[in-house]
Amino acid sequence: QVQLVESGGGLVQPGGSLRLSCAASGFRVDDYAVGWFRQAPGKERERISCIGISAARTHYTEPVKGRFTISRDKAKNMVYLQMNSLKPEDTAVYYCATGSRRYWGQGTQVTVSS
Fold first, then answer.
1. Which end of the chain is more exposed for a tag (fewer CB within 10 A), N or C?
2. Residue (of 1, 29, 5, 11) closest to 106 by Cα position
3. Are 108 and 6 in contact, with CB atoms under 8 Å apart?
4. Residues 40-90: tens digit of each pLDDT
5. Which strands make up the sheet holding 92-98, listed edge to edge?
6. Which of 96, 93, 92 minimizes the C-alpha distance to 23?
7. What is the DSSP-derived secondary structure letter of residue 109?
8. How far apart are CA 1 and CA 16, in angstroms?
9. In 3D, which of 104, 96, 103 has the Cα closest to residue 7?
10. HEC string of 25-58?
């Protein structure tokens, strides 16, 4: 049974940092691509980053490039999203999902506000 559980969201001031975690079970994170998505109020869900079977293959959308870093820990079967220099427009519910988008976590809220 595939499960993804996000954690690490919260309230942070502009310019601050958060690290989101995605705990995977039912599959190995180094056997499948995993992506991070977000959905802001009133907007469609968008993919912001993904990591391929080869950890060297990572992708970021322009709004987060240079500020966010995706990584994984094979031993812990976890995928992370380090978010730096956060902006109010990063406020959203963040989700991790398998590359096929078949399996999703429940999401974690990130709010960037002073």
1. N
2. 5
3. yes
4. 999 999 999 999 987 779 999 999 999 999 999 999 999 999 999 999 999
5. 10-12, 108-112, 92-98, 34-39, 46-51, 58-60
6. 96
7. E
8. 36
9. 96
10. ECCCCCCCCEEEEEECCCCCCEEEEEECCCCCCE
Which tokens is 37 given? 């998505």
Please give the structure tokens belonging to residue 111. 């709010």
Of the candidates 24, 14, 10, 32, the residue with the CA atom closest to the CA atom of residue 96: 24
Phi, psi angles (nearest 5°) of residue 102: -80, -35
Closest CA to 88 of 61, 108, 113: 113
